[in-house]
């Protein structure tokens, strides 16, 4: 019923920047907490950053000071501005959201992921 789709990934040199976007679509009553995760090959999926509906944020220590998470509640969109990228940031980045489809039911939803590759 609800679909999340990421975009903005690609190849970038170390020290460069990328901006990821995530769009939530479908039968949505309200989008609550949102987050970015990332997963490198043969590694676990790690939390990168979270943002509540009121705009409060939290970041993993590995990206603090370099990445900025933001959202547009009117458009049901999520963003991740990534600066000073390093090879260790190479991973598939996933959008995650807690979505209410009505006043009584909320579920967790994942996007398909977008690839970020940082060369040295």
Structural descriptors:
single chain; 120 residues; mainly beta; seven-stranded mixed beta sheet; 11 strands; elongated
Report what the structure shows.
This protein has 120 residues and is an all-beta fold. Helix content is 0%, strand content 59%. It contains no helices and 11 strands. A hairpin with a 6-residue loop joins strand 4 and strand 5. The model has no long low-confidence stretch (mean pLDDT 97).
Topology, element by element:
Blueprint: E1 2-7, E2 10-13, E3 18-26, E4 30-39, E5 46-51, E6 57-59, E7 67-72, E8 77-82, E9 91-100, E10 106-110, E11 114-119
Parallel strand pairs: 2-11
Antiparallel strand pairs: 1-3, 3-8, 4-5, 4-9, 5-6, 7-8, 9-10, 9-11
Give the overall average pLDDT: 97
How far from one another are the termini? 41 Å
Derived structural class: mainly beta
β content, as a range?
A: over 45%
Q: What would you say about this model in short?
A:
The chain is mainly beta.
């Amino acid at each position: 019923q609800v679909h999340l789709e990421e975009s903005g990934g690609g190849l970038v040199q170390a020290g460069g920047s990328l901006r990821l976007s995530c769009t939530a679509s479908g039968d949505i009553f309200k989008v609550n907490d949102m987050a970015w995760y990332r997963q490198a090959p043969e590694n676990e999926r790690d939390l990168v950053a979270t943002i509540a509906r009121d705009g409060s944020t939290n970041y993993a220590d590995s990206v603090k000071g370099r990445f900025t998470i933001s959202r547009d509640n009117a458009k049901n969109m999520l963003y991740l501005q990534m600066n000073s990228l390093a090879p260790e940031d190479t991973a598939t980045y996933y959008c995650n959201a807690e979505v209410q489809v009505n006043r009584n039911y909320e579920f967790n939803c994942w996007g398909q992921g977008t690839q970020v590759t940082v060369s040295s």
